[in-house]
Amino acid sequence: MLKVDGIDVFYGDLQVLWNVSLEVRENEILVLVGANGAGKSTTIKTISSLLRPDKGRITFNGHRLDQEPAHKIIGHGIVHVPEGRRLFTQMSVEENLIMGSLHGEAKPKRLETMAYVYELFPRLKERRKQLGGTLSGGEQQMLAIGRGLMSLPKLMMFDEPSLGLSPILVQNIFGIIKKISQEGVAVLLVEQNVMQTLKMCDRAYVMENGRIVMEGPGPELLENAQVKEAFLGI
Ligand code: ATP
After folding, report:
1. Residue 211 C-alpha to ligand 1 middle, in angstroms?
2. Ligand 1: distance of its center to the CA of 107 in Å?
3. Most buried of the four, 67, 74, 111, 148, by CB within 10 Å?
4. Which residues of the chain have pLDDT under 50?
């Protein structure tokens, strides 16, 4: 479905990705794990066309993405739920959700999709008139995911959705991500929460210093001695 093929990415003169290749297949949960600064966010920002690779190519269902402007990416069915959530703080929950559904097919179906989002997150329904900026961290994460769903994506990319949340909320959010994938949306999840994400995913890639250093099924990587030592402290 998504193919990233040998991309190099720079911030100015500073190279941060080297020959990164990965693929996301239909209906799978793919996880990208790695320490701080390994290049995970840079990889998904490049897929979203927020950054341009100097080398390599990115395709989605056969369409070349790496030459497209960022605002066109959503039209291909890819949505990026960014780290820090980036909500419209002065808009209500409902208005934030509507902002996610301004493109193509999503617009006429927005009420139906909103009902689905409220079913997934009853808390958002209760707070639908409340301003985005006044929600708790967990509720903001729910809203960021809900807004992403409003675009009827084929692929959802999540950047550290567990950041700053309590363990119980993390479980809740990961449960929702699993449910979204079961509904037929492919998931690319960037996480530092290595143990939990390797357990829930189909496959994973491990990044180190801007390079992919390992890949495999999640449960297999959980048993890998290098992964255990580097990320799990065992
Ligand atoms: P984290 O989990 O801490 O966000 P990450 O794996 O997502 O880490 P990136 O955010 O992709 O890592 O960062 C990769 C490298 O690029 C880091 O060395 C970082 O300092 C650098 N970097 C990120 N954003 C910029 C920027 N706007 N300008 C210059 N360097 C940057």
Report:
1. 13
2. 34
3. 148
4. none
